From TrEMBL:
PROSITE patterns: CARBOXYLESTERASE_B_1, CARBOXYLESTERASE_B_2. This is Carboxylic ester hydrolase. The active site is at S223, E349, H469. GO terms for cellular component: extracellular space; plasma membrane. Belongs to the type-B carboxylesterase/lipase family. It is an enzyme of class 3 (hydrolase). InterPro entries: AB_hydrolase_fold, AChE-related_enzymes, CarbesteraseB, Carboxylesterase_B_AS, Carboxylesterase_B_CS, Cholinesterase.
Length: 581
């Protein structure tokens, strides 16, 4: 063969090899972190590249003697860690109650395991690369007994690329394995919150390697994730690890979100008895026994220690360390991080939870309830107040029934359903969000309040379920922009608008503007007197007068009932008999 031909052939092979290497390198980004190198992958999101890293460890696996303990930093690793596979979900049960995609989407989509303390990072690639990007850290919800950052609905590639922010999501221990509390160094409680805190510490030490700014970190979460955000705002251990906060359908002082140490220990000992450990044993003996219990047994039995709607068995505890007092006390005393807030709730917060409690709220039924069913439902749903195991007396039950009866037509079966939904949503979600908004606004902080009022066109829940708890999440993460989804054009616009609001807030503390931008002037701040809030819905996207989307005093009357009238009524009638003889 001609020597020149051989040389040309070799050169062609070399060039092909070099091109191939560049392709692999370009699409498999490697970042050096504090503990070692991680390799992710690059994704083309409609012409905008995003580097994705799944399953980066931020703590040692909480196995063996580490069960129930606070997390400890993980060891360095050699070589390059493959960060292209979504991480394990922490130990939890699977929701099979309805067994359809509308509820299944919240079940873990990866292996469930105690070895679960990992985080994920989405990094938008700009040209030229821009350092010191704003960082948003997502904390998932799930009642502190379930949830996973690996869910498809939390995929943040749209959120990251549409508005040039780095997004981090984290796993944390849930259920008894995350929140069993014995007031003992081996099981102090709040392990799940301390997992979150350690992930925030990881962000402070490592996010600059990804191009993010440790001085511009916003934490955001929904439901129990929002409660977690609120608890980091009041905890002296967390305040220095982030800058701003977004709370979706939850607040620091949600009554179901924390419990006193005495109740936490009572539940822990009761669970120990159920799991064949001696619940009356000394704490160290009991904990040692519980560490030998198979991890999958905890979610099987933990709900036997409590009862009632939205009465989760193992939640954060006022331990004198992470939480030095109840969150309600912290807010009332002004003992919280001074920072801007963005927070709000959805129109039908209660209906999701009612459907799991009341048989005639089944998704296959028309959702109509008679006046007699309304009365029995109120009695069941408000058996405990303010939380399990404290029962609401007859005077309180009658007051709730009076407040939420549709007096124009008490026999209107669709309104009866709606009013039950509103009662549950107001007590357990809306009014705590409103109250926290007031505390922050009274302290002089910039507060932006919203009501999400759009029912998704692709929702698989019955029409009567309305705008449910968590329905805003797909719009925050850009699900309508997925090409395989069948959202309406107006919903894609709404999603882009909401992502813009959220990321503007993360960058500047004001949802109306990004850095060096003119303000949109669409979303006025919440003030104690006017209580302005923005309605997030496709209905207001193209109105010339954007003020039509701004309303005032959301649920002021109902929240006064729950936070002022009912507590005084119950306190004043504790020993009385109802009805009067």
């Amino acid at each position: 063969m001609d020597l020149h031909l051989i040389s040309a052939t070799i050169l062609i092979h070399i060039l092909i090899f070099i091109e191939h290497v560049q392709f692999i390198t370009a699409f498999n980004p490697v970042v050096s972190t504090e503990k070692g190198k991680v390799q992710g992958y690059r994704m083309d999101n409609n012409g905008a590249d995003v580097d994705i890293f799944f399953g980066i460890p931020f703590a040692k696996p909480p196995l063996g003697d580490m069960r129930f303990k606070a997390p400890v930093p993980n060891d360095p690793w050699k070589g390059t860690l493959n960060a292209t596979t979504k991480p394990n979900a922490c130990m939890q049960g699977i929701d099979k109650y309805f067994n359809f995609s509308g509820s299944d989407m919240w079940n873990p989509n990866t292996k469930i395991d105690e070895d679960c303390l990992y985080l994920n990072v989405w990094v938008p690639r700009t040209n030229p690369p821009f350092q010191n990007k704003a960082v948003m850290v997502w904390i998932f919800g799930g009642g502190f007994y379930s949830g996973s950052s690996a869910l498809d609905v939390y995929d943040a590639h749209h959120l990251a690329t549409e508005n040039d922010v780095i997004v981090v999501s984290l796993q944390y221990r849930v259920g008894a394995l995350g929140f069993l509390a014995m007031g003992h160094p081996e099981a102090p409680g709040n392990a799940g919150l301390l997992d979150q805190r350690m992930a925030l510490e990881w962000v402070q030490r490592n996010i600059h390697h990804f191009g993010g700014s440790a001085r511009n970190v916003t934490i955001f979460g929904e439901s129990a994730g929002a409660v977690s955000v609120g608890l980091h705002l009041v905890s002296p251990l967390s305040r220095g690890l982030f800058d701003r906060a977004i709370l979706q359908s939850g607040a620091a002082q949600n009554v179901w979100g924390t419990m006193p140490s005495s109740e936490a220990e009572r539940r822990s000992r009761k669970l120990a008895d159920i799991l064949k450990c001696d619940g009356k044993a000394e704490a160290d003996v009991l904990i040692d026994c519980l560490r030998r219990v198979p991890p999958e047994d905890f979610p099987k039995y933990e709900f036997l220690v409590s009862s009632g709607i939205i009465q989760y068995p193992f939640v954060p505890v006022v331990d004198g360390n992470f939480l030095v007092e109840t969150p309600a006390e912290s807010l009332a005393r002004g003992n919280f991080k001074r920072t801007p807030l963005l927070l709000g709730s959805n129109k039908n917060e209660g209906i999701w939870f009612i459907m799991y409690e009341i048989p005639f709220f089944d998704i296959k039924l028309p959702g109509l309830i008679t006046s007699d069913q309304f009365k029995s439902t109120i009695g069941k749903l408000f058996e405990f107040y303010p939380h399990f195991p404290h029962k609401l007396n007859d005077f309180g039950q009658a007051a709730v029934m009076f407040q939420y009866t549709h007096w124009q037509d008490p026999n209107n079966q669709s309104m009866n359903r709606y009013m039950v939904d509103q009662a549950v949503g107001d007590l357990y979600f809306v009014c705590y969000v409103q109250e926290m908004s007031k505390y922050y606004a009274q302290a002089g902080m910039d507060v932006y309040s919203y009501l999400f009022n759009h029912r998704s066109s692709v929702s698989e829940w019955p029409l009567w379920a309305g705008v449910m708890h968590a329905d805003e999440i797909p719009f925050i993460f850009g699900s309508p922009l997925n090409t395989h989804e069948k959202y309406l054009t107006s919903e894609k616009e709404l999603s882009r608008k909401m992502m813009r609001y959220w990321t503007n807030f993360a960058k500047t503390g004001d949802p109306n503007r990004g850095p060096n931008e003119i303000s949109l002037n669409e979303w006025p701040p919440f003030k104690p007197r006017t209580q302005d809030y923005l309605i997030l819905s496709t209905d207001h996207l193209h109105q010339a007068d954007k003020s039509q989307a701004v309303k005032q005093g959301y649920k002021a009357q109902e929240c006064a009932f729950w936070q002022n009238y009912l507590p005084h009524l119950v306190a004043g009638t504790g020993k009385l008999i109802f009805p009067y003889p």
